[in-house]
């Protein structure tokens, strides 16, 4: 039996987050400049996601607890699970994630998996930075990554980092 998917767009200060879910799990949360059409019905998981996103952007939520089911390879799933351990207000390097999931030689694969994260922000791929502290790679755009890190207090509002 095929799952039914529901979609909606959530307006953030930095563009839309287009959300997709089944009846029970969030499957996608991606930044875009264009809104998805909203499904006529919205399952509880989408309503819960919107509530938690409102809290995050208001500065009152630091961790999400939404049932998720991202689709990806076993390696991607390991990387995304590791990202869930990076707390609000902290960053981790691509090398540290590689060491944690597979070893240093997997650093490029970690970068690729990070870029394929279908549930950005909630699975905090924006908290992964270069070993030298640079902001490298973000599927939603490096300017969004910088904004999110400032929102979480990792960067000062006036601080500018080198973007690659």
**Biggest sheet overview:** 3 strands, antiparallel
Radius of gyration: 16 Å
Report the sheet-strand fraction: 15-25%
What ranges have pLDDT less than 50 throughout 5 or more consecutive residues?
none
Assembly level: single chain
Instruction: Give average pLDDT, whole number.
Output: 93
Helix/strand structural class: alpha+beta
Secondary-structure element order, as H and E?
A: EEEHHEHHEH
Measure the end-to-end span. 44 Å
What is the count of helical runs? 5
- The proportion of residues forming helix, as a percent range, comes to 25-40%
Task: Please provide a written account of the structure.
The chain has 164 residues and is an alpha+beta fold. The chain has a three-stranded antiparallel β-sheet with strand order 1-2-3, covered by helices on one side. The mean pLDDT is 93. Helix 2 crosses helix 3. The longest helix is centred in the N-terminal third of the chain and has 15 residues, at 44-58. The radius of gyration is 16 Å and the shape is globular. Helices cover 32% and strands 15% of the residues.
Any descriptors?
164 residues; alpha+beta; 5 strands; 5 helices; globular; three-stranded antiparallel β-sheet
In short, what is this structure?
The protein has 164 residues and is α+β, with helices and mostly antiparallel strands.
